[in-house]
Design goal:
Two copies of one chain form a homodimer. With 761 residues, the first copy, chain A, is of the alpha+beta class. Chain A is 26% helix and 24% strand. Chain A has a seven-stranded mixed sheet, sandwiched between helices. Chain A binds chain B through residues 226, 447, 449-454, 456, 458, 506-511, 534, 537-538, 541-542, 544-545, 548-552, 578-581, 583-584, 586-590, 592, 595, 608, and chain B through 226, 447, 449-454, 456, 458, 506-511, 534, 537-538, 541-542, 544-545, 548-552, 578-581, 583-584, 586-590, 592, 595, 608. Chains A, B: Residues 1-25 are annotated as: Disordered.
């Protein structure tokens, strides 16, 4: 079933720069829109003078809160984020005014002439402190104060189990911190909008959710969502950071005030750092009970997420973290509590790993602590407790066939990186200490229960007899469009060059959910394969007319033709393409991801997205070298195994694992995540360093034999699972190398130096 | 399952004259086209002078054979009929020249000024004589001479069985004649054509086969079939007479010579009698062997069909007649031979009953002869030999469940018309003799083996949340469009007024076969129900998005809305209609009629359409009164039972049975079918009398409980079966009344008078 021969369909266009991103589109004579940001984390606007800006030559419009016709509220679930702020600003990136100008220079000049006076307010910058009674309120008057979300996931009776622990049992407890993280996609948020004479708002946006965007814009601006058209070309990265409103409402607002003209908005890297969504910083406290033999008995813990000032998907991210907090382990009693607090930090939002990064780091670290306490090999302890099909995870959901953490660990443990680790450590060069860590990873696929994880796929037979997929789920670089081309080609028995894929357009594509949650290839892929089946049946039936065949099921769909084995006659697909009327050249079919049938009686606070049914699993080995002179830690080796259903494209799986591991390594070792009163200290890519190819080893990948019966060609989504390894694996490796016990990411050279007996910071 | 409450969807529009037929369309400023017909049955054109016609004021073009750009050949299977004759004319209706004019008056004037000189040739007017060696040849140079088609259908060894008959056995033999018949549809052939500036040939035609017409026209005129668009509004009757080329090629040719302008052609009744297709006249000789107890042993026979000068579907009509020649009876040995000959009579073509009328009359008459010879009740003899499921018919095909001639006979025999027949006869008024006849009837459904009996159905959700069926099979009055509305309404759980049906248009509808062969409701209905299932699934999946439902299968499609029983929330279909992009509001699906799996090893001459798998069955009682003074025979009572799968609409079934019985009674008693040297003696409706409502009794109908598992809602086609009863039932009744032994239809008063001892003619 593996398709390793087909080159990625978009490889050439991307390698040669021919592929068009929305950032590449600048219609002649288009206007430019830009935003004046608050620049302070919390305060009241006492004066906003836009007169000078309006009088600036080349400025077409300066818009403030008063110019927003609708609710002015955006947000995927909770609509609490203003398009343009009224009186209160709640983080440095808040939008205060919108300028539309004839040129980028006029835009810059206009933005600079906006005068804002603020009355600063005390801010709250810690998600735990934010819940204290006297914390400054981000949304005054709100019943729950700064508590945006709270949830409890329970199975069995963890408190009783912990209370009843005997002297022979072992309990470990610790608190862990993971920082915010910027997505650092190549292409910052941007888009175009135009209000046509017919009243259609025509938009081209770098977005992960074109179909939802229509409703978001319509709600915020008081428009008819069906009069909004969103096109989503290939994205230069997304990672969750384009799953939600970035430029959409602002751009639409600008277009409403410049009827008939294209308006473009393109955030700079600096604006993206300032105003874009971030991975939630989190504090996780866990307590784990095990028998002396290493058998896990109970887990209890609290997760605190920093939402920033607006909800975005914070509650759902917290819930997914809680659902993963037990790891891929068999634990009879669990009690996971979650809190999500408003702060005046950057807005927390979706990010590859979606709460699981935070929980997984803590769980894996605590497994290491248990191993230390028991004097056990960390890998063996994990293997011993690996969750098996038919058992219940920490949310009480019986996990599916294909859950095989032990096999994932075994695959890595059979690799020379593991078997030869001691020799490798001993061969460490001077001033270097080496260590190896091995952790288990998991990530759920899809939206989970409570809302449909749906996609509809449109497949077109062209008049030339080739096939065109109308993709409804944006390709942000992960390669789903190419996977769809390869899938359809295989399903239809056609060469890959006979299949093309056009990117989402809400006017011509049937609806699908967002490109997120490791769901696109599974959900849209299933819809596409159903459309392929319908197309195949149609082609045979139509060819039967030309071939005078009374039993279409006897016909064979061959490359470029339908043939009748009984007569040897064939009709070219190009002829069928010419024969059929337009509507008859199209097949649309849909798929909705199955959900957990009998959900456990817990997590009732979570209306949407809890619990999940399908998971991909894996294991990750990281080997590090710590420099005893500088404290710098280098990721020397990285190996990831994965069980994610059948492998359709090994190259595709490897690309996702490598990219995810690099992003995980960035969080662990590279990225400057320090906040200074609600603002990232690093303001650009000169200071916010992400790992380059030279900074990382070649990540080795091991894809296990697996099969997901509900999956398209047996596959499951796996775009996120690889990000969970490097954080805890680097921490374990660092302990192996230096004895330093890491509770916080990223790793700082100071802490490492100190642990190795070098210079304290 | 019966739908007797829903009024026929087109009833009001038709009753009030609002419905538009193609004859109703006369675009302002359109040209008129008309044909100069040969007027002689056989001859060579020695001179054709169109100069005066061309010079006629208002004449736009006069076209002859030299102006035809393609093959000039038309014909559904064999392309042997010229659009415009070259040198030879082969029947009186042959088209010699085509005139296009600005007005009907100019057209008439132009036609009258065409001067044609013929050199007459001896004609051949009898299909048996046509096969003799010295017969004049209709197509000189043709290898098979006048023999257009020949076939043999055998099962067992009928010659041996007949040769081996013992003295105790009974053999009956006779020869029967059925005449040609005109369809006498209300709306004579007509249509419109226009060559658009884009090169599209846009046509509106009263046709039973819009999709095939494109290929017919393209072949004859050397055009691209995909650049021809045919729209087929409701037909004012068809009965097979519009299944093939009438105006199509002529009209297209005219339009090619008047680019940009609409051209209209409308045949008069007289032109239709002259040039239109007719039911084939036939001579059938049958020999039937039975045991003394009435058990049928063997049947042997020869069918001779009069094709006229062009093939049309003559071979297929002959084959279907042969396939039915054994009647719905159990006969171990059969040998049926068929011949079809070219003559200079009117062109034989498709007509309701399609060869079965001819064969059935002979078979049923011979059963009567056997009953007389055995001194048996004709009904009981039929019942004794009724074919049962699992047995093989005369073509060797094992008949399906639902074959129950005995039940059809029983239903009629339980009716007072049968049980009270002797009392009724005794109550005959003065100068009147009464008699009752009861025969079995059957008719296959669909094209049969060798070509796909296919249809694709397009179902559209409108933006208003209602449904629109795009019918691909013309409704010629039989009511299929209304049946489709009712079927879709039921399948979708919507009120009938929420479903509309638009008539065929090759540009917007997916393809389907012709409206013929009792196939439309079955084949298109199945395709439509599949499209309805796809639509239902789509609606639930799309509604799930609006209802945030993770399990669309839980949703319910209610009238006008999709509802979630779990939450009580609903989304109106009108909202879904607005939500979906255009292509997503359409579902297309298709169906191909199953064929006989293991066809018997006979009838190999028939490439197309042999044998058939599905039949409808019935029985027909006719009671007649013969006037002893005038010889006039009046059909006093008519009762038809039918087993045709489930009855979806009893009114629809009754309408078909009543119409078919009337058409059968027309052939038996009313229509002047006499030919005079290749031309019908009756030239208009003043002389070709068809029965009116006043001439006929109310035909009573009995629809049996039945079910066809492959049928849409369990039904089978039954538009033809009812025509087979009156011919043989009237003959049997007349024998019962008068002792006259009828071998020929129609019944003539002279023959009746003579038999009753009245005045000989």
């Amino acid at each position: 079933m593996r398709d390793d021969a087909t080159p990625r369909a978009d490889a050439l266009a991307k390698a040669t720069g021919q592929e068009r991103y929305s950032a590449d589109e600048t219609p002649p004579g288009c206007l430019w829109a830009g935003v004046r940001r608050a620049g302070i984390p919390h305060g009241l606007i006492t004066a906003l003078d836009v007169a000078a800006a309006r009088d600036t030559p080349g400025v077409a419009a300066v818009l403030t809160r008063a110019d927003v016709p609708g609710t002015n509220r955006q947000g995927i679930v909770h609509k609490d984020q203003p398009v343009l702020c009224g009186q209160r600003v709640r983080h440095c990136g808040d939008a205060v005014a919108l300028v539309v100008a004839e040129s980028r220079a006029a835009l810059a000049e206009g933005l600079s002439r906006i005068a804002v006076d603020f009355s600063p307010l005390p801010g709250v910058f810690d998600p735990v402190a934010a819940l204290l009674p006297d914390a400054p309120l981000v949304h005054p008057g709100r019943e729950d104060g700064n508590r945006l979300a709270h949830g409890l996931v329970e199975k069995g009776d963890a408190p009783a189990a912990l209370a009843g622990a005997s002297a022979d049992d072992v309990v470990v407890f610790d608190e862990f911190h993971t920082p915010l993280q910027d997505h650092v996609f190549l292409e910052p948020p941007n888009g175009l909008a135009r209000l046509t004479p017919a009243g259609l708002l025509d938009m081209v946006v770098s977005t992960q959710a074109p179909f939802r965007d229509r409703f978001e814009i319509a709600h915020a601006l008081g428009l008819d969502p069906m009069k909004i058209r969103i096109r989503a070309p290939y994205l230069g990265g997304g990672f969750g950071g384009k799953d939600g409103a970035t430029v959409q409402c602002l751009l639409a607002l600008a277009a409403l005030h410049a009827p008939g003209r294209w308006v473009k908005m393109a955030w700079s890297r600096e604006e993206t750092f300032l105003a874009g969504y971030k991975r939630h910083a989190a504090t996780v406290r866990l307590r784990l009970l095990a028998g002396r033999d290493g058998t896990l008995r109970a887990l209890s813990g609290v997760l605190n997420f920093d939402a920033g000032p607006y909800a975005h998907l914070s509650g759902e991210i917290m819930a997914l973290g809680m659902e993963h907090a037990g790891g891929p382990y068999r634990i009879p009693h669990t009690r996971i509590e979650g809190f999500c607090a408003y702060t005046n930090n950057p807005v927390g939002g979706a990010f590859r790993g979606f709460g699981v990064v935070q929980a997984g780091f803590a769980t894996e670290r605590l497994m290491d602590a248990l191993a230390v306490k028991l004097g056990r090999d960390p890998a063996g302890l994990r293997r011993q407790n690996a969750l098996c099909p038919g058992e219940r995870n920490c949310a009480g959901v019986t996990v599916e066939a294909g859950t095989d953490t032990a096999a994932c660990l075994d695959a890595v443990m059979a690799h020379p990186f593991w078997t030869g680790r001691e020799a490798w450590k001993k061969a460490a060069p001077a001033f270097t200490r080496r260590g190896t860590g091995l952790v288990a990873i998991q990530n759920a696929m899809g939206y989970g229960r409570g809302l449909p994880d749906a996609a509809a796929a449109k497949l077109e037979l062209t008049r030339q007899g080739t096939f065109r997929i109308h993709n409804s789920v944006p390709d942000m670089g992960q390669g789903n469009a190419s996977a769809f081309v390869a899938m359809a080609a295989r399903a239809l028995g056609q060469p890959a060059h006979a299949v093309t894929c056009v990117q989402p357009d809400t006017r011509t594509c049937p609806p699908a959910g967002s490109s997120s949650a490791s769901r696109t290839t599974y959900t849209f892929g299933n819809a596409l394969l159903r459309a392929c089946r319908a197309m195949r049946e149609k082609l045979l039936a139509r060819a039967a007319l030309a071939l005078l065949c009374d039993a279409p099921e006897r016909l064979e769909l061959l490359p470029g033709a339908v043939s009748d084995p009984a007569t040897g006659r064939a009709v070219p697909l190009a002829r069928i393409g010419l024969m059929l009327c337009r509507d008859d050249r199209i097949c649309i079919d849909q798929f909705v991801m199955p959900v957990v049938d009998n959900p456990p009686d817990t997590g009732r606070e979570f209306k949407l997205g809890f619990p999940h049914r399908f998971y991909s699993y894996g294991a990750c080995l990281c080997a590090v070298e710590a420099d005893t002179l500088t404290g710098t830690v280098r990721l020397a080796r990285c190996l990831v195994s994965v069980a994610c259903g059948r492998v359709f494209s090994l190259a595709g799986v490897e690309q996702q694992l490598q990219g995810a591991a690099a992003q995980g390594a960035g969080l662990a070792l590279f990225e400057d995540t320090v906040l200074d009163r609600g603002r990232m200290r690093a303001k650009d890519l000169g200071t916010y360093l992400i790992p380059t190819a030279l900074d990382l080893p070649d990540t080795r990948c091991l894809a296990l034999d697996d099969d997901e019966p509900t999956g398209p060609m047996g596959l499951k989504g796996m775009g996120e699972v690889g990000i969970h390894g490097p954080g805890p694996a680097v921490a374990q490796a660092l302990y192996d190398a230096t004895g330093i016990w890491l509770r916080r990411l990223p790793v700082t050279p100071q802490a490492v130096l100190e642990a190795m007996g070098g210079l304290p910071s």
